[in-house]
Amino acid sequence: MIYDVVIAGAGPVGLFLACELRLAGIPVLVLERADDPRSPLKRLPFGMRGLSVPTVEAFYRRGLLNDIAPPASPRQRHQPGHFAGIPLDHANIDTSQWPYRLPNPADANAAADMEHIETTLAARAAMMGAEIRRGIEVEGFEQSGDEVSIRAGGQTIRARWLVACDGGRSTVRKAGRFAFTGTEPEFTGYSVQVELADPEKLPIGRHYTPTGMYFQSRPGTIAMVEFDGGAFHRTQPVTLELVQAVLRRVSCTDVTLTSLNLATTWTDRAFQATNYRDGRVLLAGDAAHIHSPLGGQGLNLGLGDAMNLGWKLAATIRGTASAGLLDSYSSERHPVGAQVLDWSRAQVALMRPSPQTRALEAIVRDLVGTRDGATYFAGRVWGVALRYDVGGGHPLAGRSAPDFELADGTTLGGRLGAGRGLLLDFDARGPLQAWAGRWSDRIEYVASDAKDTLGLSAVLVRPDGCVAWAGESPPDERELTAAAARWFGEPQR
Ligand SMILES: Cc1cc2nc3c(=O)[nH]c(=O)nc-3n(C[C@H](O)[C@H](O)[C@H](O)COP(=O)(O)OP(=O)(O)OC[C@H]3O[C@@H](n4cnc5c(N)ncnc54)[C@H](O)[C@@H]3O)c2cc1C
């Protein structure tokens, strides 16, 4: 037996990718090293993950948003966000800078805990027919021109494609021919839950000191960084004594701990694979890029990888993909990852314990306080500035499709649940219906007026919700045909 796709790792990225592939009808096997997916670190408070607008949109378009972050639950939040702890002021953000965004249920960031995200995605993947085997570690692989032999749990499993979603220390990435380059850490970060003998010595909130930074969100729940070059990360057990010593150094107090309930360490090591594809092996999520969790973007980046890769790999397997479609996964997602790594490095640079850094931070704080500054930072933090280079002259091309409300009350987002391409034609008397027939097996044609068409006559949307082409009246059929061929392959005969 040979699988079309084996995914290494049932973290959020592997599971979401499995859902995307099943949506296209591709058989998928997911291999997960851990027997039990549950962990205290995946629950509150440390398991909380901020979800950016592209992630929320992706869940909305696949009918998962209400399960993962229902609007009325405390999981959902509408916070403007921050940069290196400097909060953005909602009132200062000029949303008219993103004229193609329409109000919709997914137009705000949200939050949910890791365990809930993983449980929901695992249930959806299994319900859609993905096979998930837990307690099986991928140990290595060999690939030939037409298949990959995967060594896992003492057996050999054959697949046409292998996708590494096995996290930052990815076995698959290390076993493959992937260059992984970047910058070494400046600090060790700690997330701890402790009991304090003298809590009055440690004020709530984020505090920069001459030796580092600590952030106490509520009594005893503390994140702190010590600029030690990452020396303590995974080099010794995180004991009460160690945490107390670090907390004393970083807070410049003599605070005393009476117990240590939970602890994990991390660093600002920022590395990225130079290419996300080597033949029949692909990387996604933390397997492709690692950076500090400050600013909370890693999960969003990984889920964006999965949304971008799923339909491209499915089309490649079905034989309908245009030449170069699969390689566009790496060429589109690598620059997005590189930007996130730099965003995280810039935040680290603003946290260094030096008078120069505090002076620089004060200037950045002033800039964040301006309307242009707040808008710039919000575009990056919310993820709404994201744009792929898809060619074509329209300013909407490459951006997330506006959530048009159609005449029958349905929305564009609601119509992307099947994971197919979509041609939205606002001028049903025009020529595009005949045109659409040529791609009817891959592109759904919807002729409808909309509450607000944003002055467009038609929009071609990829399965991942990205606008492949947008036209004003009269539509340029040649440009539309070129966009369709690029993203959906040759038309039917
Ligand atoms: C403290 C902290 C806070 C964070 N906050 C945020 C946030 O607010 N927003 C955000 O976007 N991101 C955040 N992140 C980052 C985010 O959690 C990760 O980027 C995300 O979990 C990556 O998902 P993944 O599926 O790629 O990898 P992982 O979640 O690491 O999953 C990988 C899976 O692969 C399995 N595995 C590993 N090796 C093998 C193998 N050889 N064979 C089979 N299975 C294997 C693992 O057991 C695991 O289940 C945070 C991270 C930390 C540490």
UniProtKB/TrEMBL annotation:
Superkingdom as given in the UniProt entry: Bacteria
Keywords per UniProt: FAD, Flavoprotein
InterPro entries (UniProt xref): FAD-bd, FAD/NAD-bd_sf, RIFMO-like
Signal peptide (residue range): none
Cofactor requirement: FAD
GO molecular function: FAD binding; oxidoreductase activity, acting on paired donors, with incorporation or reduction of molecular oxygen, NAD(P)H as one donor, and incorporation of one atom of oxygen
Start and end residues of each FAD-binding domain: 3-344
Protein name per Swiss-Prot or TrEMBL: FAD-dependent oxidoreductase
Organism: Duganella vulcania
